[in-house]
Specification:
Number of strands: 2
Structural class: mainly alpha
Largest sheet: 2 strands, antiparallel
Strand content: 5-15%
Radius of gyration: 21 Å
Strand order of the largest sheet: 1-2
Number of domains: 2
Length: 138
Amino acid sequence: MSKKLFTAKEIQILSKNTYVKSVSSKGITYTDEFKELFITQNEQGKTPREIFDKCGFDEEVIGIDRIRSSGKRWREAYRKNGVLGLRDTRPGNTGRLRDRELSIEEKYARLEAETNLLKAENELLKKIRFAERGMKKK
């Protein structure tokens, strides 16, 4: 994390940017849309400074070190996990284990959701195989 703290005025300026999910005195949370845009434009040869500037961020407010480290972190996450690596997983994952035992209804709902996911995956694989067979015949 950067040592630079944001003032109240800088927080107000940053929070108006459409690519900022939230901002505090210590850090910025960017939208997933911005991270994907960053990766796309960076692969096209644009520098992190150019991308941040084009998207309405002031380099003086954010700081060049924060821009570089964000870009480096996002590129690494994208290389490892693709677009899913850029997603902010904090809201859905508290990291705490459940203290209580799940009820029968909750277990059933969870198993049903898992079954539906597996059915969808199977359907997708069938479509892919069907498409591949069509390509081989031609």
